[in-house]
Amino acid sequence: MPRYFFHTSDGSRDQDDVGVELNDAATARREAIRYGGSLLHDNPEIVDAHGGLRIEVVDESGVFCAAVLIQAVDADQARGRAA
Amino acid sequence: MAGQSPSRRPQAALTPGPAQLDIFVRKLLAYSPLSTADQRELADLPFQYRSLGPGMTILREGDHAQVCPILLSGFAFRYKLAADGGRQIVALRIPGDPLDFQSLYLRTVDHHMRSLTAVELALVPLAALEQLADMRRSIARAILVDILVEASIGREWQLNVGRRHALPRLAHFLCELAYRLEVIEPRARAGFDVPLTQEQLADILGLTPVHVNRTLKALEQAGAVARSGRRLRATDLGLLASFADFAPLYLHRDNA
User: Fold this and answer.
1) Which CATH architecture describes the domain B164-251?
2) Closest CA to B216 of B226, B208, B203, B207
3) Could you tell me the pTM of the whole model?
4) Do A19 and B208 touch (CB under 8 A)?
5) Which CATH class is domain B22-150?
6) Predicted confidence (pLDDT) per residue in A57-69, tens digit
7) Residues B166, B159 contacting (CB under 8 angstroms)
8) A67 vs chain B: nearest CA distance in angstroms?
9) What are the extents of the domains in chain B?
10) Nearest residue in chain B measured CA to CA from A14
11) Cβ contacts from A onto B, under 8 A
């Protein structure tokens, strides 16, 4: 099975140097989303990090497959932008 | 015991070997008082020897069991399946564990069971166990205690999967395994090899394999576990216990 790497940024960048064997890129994408959910379940404040939570999926050859970006938008910010 | 071919055909034991059920007797003794006469009766139970490779079916939901398999070596797990095929591992059984005491009392097996690693089993006829339990109250009690302790571990798993964050969740599970293994491997709390893959840990802990991977990395950086290739070893149980806020009361190691 091909191996995929899930580089995570949540304020600090965590380079995945071990990876996980998964069936294909579509499965890896799905796992990245579920992984984001799992991280946020434990630590909701991760979204407050600069740039929010970012999970980048890369294959064994280093080719980018998908990225999951999770951010929160608050009322104050939204009003500020519209002004 | 390791290295036996998984395709070996099941053998009938012609006479029960007292040494072979020793690990089972030791397991029961760790949780219940049993006289030497009780122990001898248990060790003399008739059984059929069987060896299986990893991932082989031991129990099927809906079975009407005739035998109680005893795990002589290797690990096995109970699991249930959701309609979409999602698997939840609901219990882990270690060497020395009886695998189906429940069928002494319940007509139908209500879950699936598979071997995790290659295993050796002693298939004890339920009728023989029942007869022994009828004759000896202390043995009947020991059977009940085993069922109750497994239920207690199950309640802790519900808490673990339902509430604990990923790192304490994984750390807690490893501490529990160390305490349980201590019955058969006295130095387990000084460090032990974890017989589970990342995917199996994910199925037990209700985490995605990616999250298990990342959590193992964090534990490794803290010095609590060591990984080399596919192998995982829990090395610092004290540290794991502090991450997990581990309290062994629910394992009832004080019961005997």
Assistant:
1) Orthogonal Bundle (1.10)
2) B226
3) 0.88
4) no
5) mainly beta
6) 999 999 999 999 9
7) no
8) 14
9) 22-150, 164-251
10) B214
11) 35
